[in-house]
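Researcher: Here's the sequence for the chain we discussed earlier.
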Amino acid sequence: MPRIAIVTDSTACIPQDMLEDLNIHWLPYYIHYGENTWRDMVTITPEKFYAWLPTAETLPHTATPGSGEYLAMYKKLAEEGVQQIASIHMTSKGSGAFQAAQTAKGMLKDILPDLVVEVIDTLNVSMCHGWMVVEAARAAIQGTSIKGIVERVAQLVPVTRMLQTADTLKYLYMGGRIGKAQHLVGSVLNIKPIISMEDGIIVSLGTARSRKRAYQMMIDKIEAVVGEGGKIKIAYVHAAALGEVEKIRDLVEERFYPVETIFTELSPALGVHTGPGTAGLCYFPASS
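Model: Thanks. This is the structure I predict for it:
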């Protein structure tokens, strides 16, 4: 079988131990603030970033890895004996990583014409994107072909769902990532929005008067998809709000059957747009 490598970036929010266990290769996004530049999850940690962010006078800017960085990664893997690569990225409607990877793939034609690179747009973010990377890596380890890996990710794109809430939408708004939830910006302060993603764009699925009610709405939305007692793979994702996602976990386990559970924190490059206090989940229906 050809040697297959899985490539992604820091916004997949996959826990470090899983990245290592599944041999997932990744590149960091960049965070720019004034004259400072941080490499996401390399020179800035979530703990330090979320403690600092509320003190920032303006919102930091984020940037994807460049096409040259993806090219260098692909070349390095080829030198190590990799013959095929699945390069998996967050929604192209909210980031330029997919396009940067596509450009790098085009640059390989004359350099390494025999290296097969499949660049995949997940149309998702956070651990929804991450789940697709994890499942692709597991398939690669099991000997699945590159075609089979692409098909597996394609199966997950429409059924992997994000549900999250936050104390404020100001970070999404300031960063220009508000998508179709624009109408919520002027809502009263005690409204908790339920934010999701459809076709690669941020959307609102409703609002609640409290976090407790917002979490219950998340549970109801999961049940509408998988039914009570349904099997799911689920990742609890937060930004300096572990205690909040533990509350969500307790509600989930009362109603559903998680066959796999992950806790993870939003990478700073994503947390720029959500702010500290964000709590939510990424899940998909599981057969076993």
